[in-house]
Write a structure and sequence with these properties.
Number of helices: 8
Strand content: 15-25%
Distance between the termini: 61 Å
Shape: globular
Radius of gyration: 18 Å
Strand order of the largest sheet: 3-6-5-7-4
Largest sheet: 5 strands, mixed
Length: 191
Amino acid sequence: MRDKRRKSSAAAAVTVTVKAGTSSRFLPSALPPPGESQLCYEGESLIRLLTSFKREIESARDSDPIFPQKFWIKQQFAVGANEVTRILERMPPHGEDIKHHSAKHSSTSCINLQAIMLAIDCNPRLLAKHLPVLASSRGVPVIFIKDRKEGSLRLGELLKLKTAIVIGIKANGNTINRLVDELLASNTIES
């Protein structure tokens, strides 16, 4: 009888609500499937995406050489699961009044993320399992990067790092943000 309770509680733990009114069952080690505000890139489309991002990052960096590379990256991107999670948790939930939210969190400045890029192949997967759900609750689109166990290496190359499981693109109104706007509007990347 004790084993039955464990099984039923384990089965309840794997059901996660992705959108209002729908639920998705998935294994605890897997990420939720892409939804309407989530894009997945792999193969040739991934190469075009990363090439265009590298080009825009380099041109934006060359136009603003005041800060050293490390500080400039911190201004434009949130790198890593902890930093992206922290920023998403400080953002107001999708549909909540910003004035009401800022009264609750007056001590922290609100940095908004335009989108997050998430490597599907991250290991352990529990590091990033919560990010798609948290991002959708904040109205932030998710771009999945899938590349035969090398997605985190590809994301790291964008910012000249060894690896990066997730990169949050901060909404600063620069050329990188315009590229992400075009990407989200058209769902295609031109080379």
